[in-house]
Amino acid sequence: MMIKCGRSLLVLAASMMLFHTTARSQTKVKAAARQVIAINNDWQFKKDANRRDAALADLKWKNINIPHTWNDKDIQSGNGFYAGDATYRKELQVDTNWKGKRVFIRFEGVGSESRLYVNERFIGEHKGSYSAFAFDISYALKYGQKNKIEVRVNNQEREDIIPINNRLFPIYGGIYRPVSLIVTNKVNIAVTDFASPGIYISQKNISAKSADIQLKVKMENKSEKAAALSLSAKIYDAAGKLVKEENSPVNVSTQGEQIFTQNLNLTNPHLWNGIKDPYLYKLVARVLDGNQVLDEVSQPLGLRKFEMKPGKGFFLNDEPYRLLGVCRHQDKQDEGNALSNEQHVADLKDIREMGATSIRFAHYQQSEYLYSKCDSMGFVIWAEIPFVNAVSGKEAANAQHQLRELIRQNYNHPSIYVWGLHNEVYGKTPDDYTAVLTRDLDDIAKTEDPDRYTVSVSGYGEMDRPTNLNADIQGMNRYYGWYEGHIGDLEQWVSGLEKKYPDNRLVLSEYGVEANIDQQEELSRDTGNPSGQFWPEAYQQKFHEIQWGIIEKHPYIAASYVWNMFDFAVPPANGGGVPARNMKGLITYDRKVKKDAFYWYKANWNPEPMVYIAGRRNNKRVNALTTVTVYSNTGTPELMVNGKKVTGVKKGTTAAHYVFEKVKLKKGKNSIEAMAGKKEIMDRVEWNLK
Asked: How many C-beta atoms lie closer than 10 Å to residue 161's C-beta?
């Protein structure tokens, strides 16, 4: 494909989360008296024998760096994967100067159950693969000496830890996100408050004229006496200029965790306005003893107002804002889920190129670095916990804990508009376990964060199911033309809900169909075969052409999310000629090929002028008369076949969709060219007719 001018990606702002360390090497970042030290290099790892997967165990120690997963290859093989025990260990030289301070260790993600030991001493455990956790290890360290850090990990399915199975996506094992030490004074902003930043920024009454901001700071004092100190809050604009400051005295007791609040107001603020203008301030909270800074935490501040109006769609800063969305799984071929920050950003660049404005990070908490990049790139995002697919009756406590982790750790990200409570977890009666737990989760979310929406998702099309309507927004996953019915049935479904439930907030949380780029056909089918071994790319193309054409005309669907942006692993899957793979992605699992459907959405969502001829991989033709589909967002394209102009173009399902029917091919090679925009933009493919 040839495009005259590619839209440059918005410059990515650096992450402003103080304790987010991005380097794999062991480095120090000083902020007043707080140090953040990445300890990602020079670990050792081995699998431990267990009865279930003894044949897959490897008892030899290996030198590795973090991020790491032991399932980077075996999950994708289709021959089973190792789910069981493993051990990570590291020698850590502890600075003598840290004695008398507080030392924490913080893990951003370990799959999925972990137990931490320091110098053979058990420190604590964490249950859940996708959220961060932190422990105070000050009392277990030997200062001025080498210390032994050991993490025992297990990724087997458990009924009391969500997700409770590997059916929809794999539970990868390993320390697959960065690890850091945080060193503070004995008076400090909380580190172990669900591994949150320890400060919470709320915003109200946001407009172009004014913004009310409340800062809540959680503090601890592990010294011998109460401390009379001062709390400073400073807001800096994107250029680094101080625009607001507030100082107040605080008396920090030696007993328990204490909360202090400050209120700030900005006049004529520069608003965060999504993809168009993702403007970020920075808020810095400091604890001071006179002029000495005892601790400091910095967080992004994007001032915005989100609102979802029933029947009218989503509004950003009181203006209509279409949420053009995709879902994203975090794993990649031959990498598993142990991705670098550069790989996370590469995924976001692909999503941005397509023109999406919103991302559903499904079905679990994803990288903190990824969320921070969404802040600076302007994506409006949906964050959720992995309460998905099935219920055991034993996961309630863990689901509630993981929701608190999700909210507290990501509270300050301006890009997040909704907290996801569950996906396709069903019940039979209004008092069913799932319905009750969902209501409990909704209450937790509202208590933790009353200013954001909540959402739960059903895989059925009815609004009045017992597990529905227990959150602010009802999400529905619909797969007409794949798991049921025909592609066009989506129209009848949404029209029916519009009439019957005009006052409900609805999002189409998933829609999509599988496509193997190595499988091609010229036929035009109306239904697919999800249990079969043939998933042609052309059917995915047709599916999205029809369904986006329907969605575009219905603002009642306040947000829609293509399932999925990238192909991903599914251990029990066995379809489309590839084992252990879900191929509903618009881009292949290795991120190397963008499918035709990707360019369909790019033509409709990204205003950058483009022309694209669909069916480029279907280059071995058997029919002399064929249909040529062209996507153009810069006017009606001109089609040339073997140097001759083709007439009789028809408009398709949207303004970017053009169809040329009964195009005649010759035997052998055929050159197909499409041009638009005074012929300055063009695309060319070559098809061979037998």
From this structure: 24
User: Is pLDDT of 131 > 80?
Assistant: yes
Q: Is the pLDDT of residue 322 over 60?
A: yes
pLDDT band at 55 (very low <50, low <70, confident <90, very high): low
Question: What's the confidence (pLDDT) of residue 27?
Answer: 38
Residue 54 has pLDDT above 70, yes or no: no
Number of H helices, E strands in the chain: 7, 45
Q: Report the distance separating Cα 386 and Cα 366, nearest Å.
A: 11
Instruction: Please give the helix or strand (H or E) that residue 603 lies within, else none.
Output: helix 596-605
- Residue 162's nearest CA partner among 454, 333, 384, 367 is 384
Is 545 annotated in the active site?
no
71 phi, psi to nearest 5 deg: -110, 25
**H-helix segments, 305-395:** 341-354, 368-377
What's the mean pLDDT when you consider all of the chain?
93
Cβ atoms 273, 264 nearer than 8 A: no
Cα angle 527-533-535, degrees, rounded to a multiple of 5: 45
Parallel, antiparallel, or unpaired for β 358-361 and 323-327? Answer: parallel
- Collapsing DSSP to helix, strand or coil, 95 comes out as coil
Cα 287 to Cα 224: distance, rounded to the nearest angstrom: 18
Query: Minimal CA–CA distance to 145: which of 87, 89, 99, 88?
Result: 99
Nearest to 376 by CA among 246, 458, 272, 449: 272
Which of 488, 440, 480, 433 has the alpha carbon at shortest distance from 461? 480
Residue 227, helix vs strand vs coil? strand
Distance CA 12, CA 113 (A): 34
Q: Which residues contact 604 (CB under 8 A, 6 or more apart)?
A: 355, 548, 552, 631, 633, 654, 656
Catalytic site residue from 424, 510, 514, 608: 424
Question: In the Cβ-directed half-sphere of 651, how many Cα atoms lie within 13 Å?
Answer: 8
Q: Judging by beta carbons within 10 Å of its beta carbon (0-12, 13-18, 19+), is residue 279 exposed, middle or buried?
A: buried
Q: How many CB atoms lie within 10 A of CB 81?
A: 24
Residue 16, CB-side half-sphere exposure with 13 Å CA sphere = 24
Task: Round to whole Å and give the CA distance between 458 and 474.
Answer: 8
> Using an 8 Å Cβ cutoff, are 289 and 249 in contact?
no
Residue 167 scores a pLDDT above 60: yes
* 322: its two tokens: 């279409």
Q: Per residue in 329-388, pLDDT tens?
A: 999 999 999 999 999 999 999 999 999 999 999 999 999 999 999 999 999 999 999 999
Our CA angle for 630, 632, 638, nearest 5°, is 65
118 neighbors 147 (Cβ within 8 angstroms): yes
Structure-block tokens of residue 550: 């329907």
Residue in the structure block whose two tokens are 């059925």: 460
Return the exposure string of 135-159: e unless at least 16 CB atoms fall within 10 Å of the residue's CB, then b. bbbbebbeeeeebebbbbbbbbebe
At 338, list the tokens. 């142990």
Strand-pair partners of 126: 114
SS3 call for 328: coil
Structure tokens at 601: 């959405």
Contacts of 482 (CB under 8 A, 6+ apart): 512, 513, 514, 527, 528, 530, 543
Residue among 664, 35, 592 nearest 335 (CA) = 592
Question: What's phi and psi for 426, nearest 5 deg?
Answer: -110, 160
Say if residue 10's pLDDT is above 50: no
